[in-house]
Specification:
Helix content is 32%, strand content 33%. The protein has helices spanning 11-28, 37-44, 97-111, 133-140, 161-164, 188-201, 216-229, 276-291, 307-316; strands spanning 2-6, 52-61, 64-74, 81-88, 116-124, 144-155, 174-179, 230-239, 245-254, 259-267, 297-302, 319-330. The longest helix is centred in the first third of the chain and has 18 residues, at 11-28.
Amino acid sequence: MEIIGVDVRDEKARQEFYAIEQEVIRHDLPHGWERTYESFEQWALLPDNPHRRTIHLAATVEGTWVGTAEVGLSLQDNPHFAEVEVAVRPAARRDGVGRTLFERVEAICAENGRTTLCGEIHLRQGDDLADSAAGRFGSRFGFESVHQEDHLVLDLPASVDHLAGAVDVSPSGYDIVLWGEHCPDEYVEDFAMMRTQMANDVPIGEIDWEAVVIDTQRLRAGESRVAKGWIPIVAAARRRADGVMGGYSMLLLPRGGELVMQDDTLVMPQHRGHRLGTALKLATLGVVRSQYPQRTAIHTWTEPDNHAMQRTNADFGFTARERLHELQRKR
């Protein structure tokens, strides 16, 4: 077995890497989230990201790819932290492929001064972490579950007429504004502030990660990168009396695909109690239904104890399909 570095800017290597990723998802997770090849390709071909470095590896046996690994290293924040992912083709499991890949991942993390490693696994609803192959693999290398979220799915087209009739933010003094790839200049400072608030508010359990500040420069750079592989839909609530933003919701549609990812939904603390979260999600869903009717489902992830968002998602018809575990090792 040989572990090789992968240059995903090379078309053949990119296709091989993506093929293993999709094979593993289809085998392990019938409801799994998939990034499309188009979104993966566009992301891989982007210029270097000043905030993050990603290293790709492959395990080969006599020239045949049997597994892959991905290591994400933040460059300007959280210099102790690394995101890791290991995928092994089902037919190649129990032959030491995952162990050999992870040993190379460990070496890369050590070389880059990373003392906290974090990865995600999804389990079918009701499955026990300790009984799962992924859970046992993580435990063998010193990982433990430090955060959980429900992976929720809303099949489209969804019937939300009962919500549309119950939610009207106009009497509360708010307007809903929409945009796509580029936040209008008049809102960009408020939007950056809300994105920073979201980074601080989102529950992350015991993950050893310090929230970052999203300034306008970082926001604009992120917009440009995201738009290459994804179609963003953003709705924001603007208070009519003073123009202050009260919250936002964002969907990301992978280019060339059938699915939708619900990214953030935030209502600022002083603006809660007006059902803005529901109104914002209705607005983005309306764009999907009218402009992207071929999309078949929306995927989102919500902490089990986030009761307010769990209720909102249930009102829309989201149902839990899997449980996400964030596994972490600190040394």
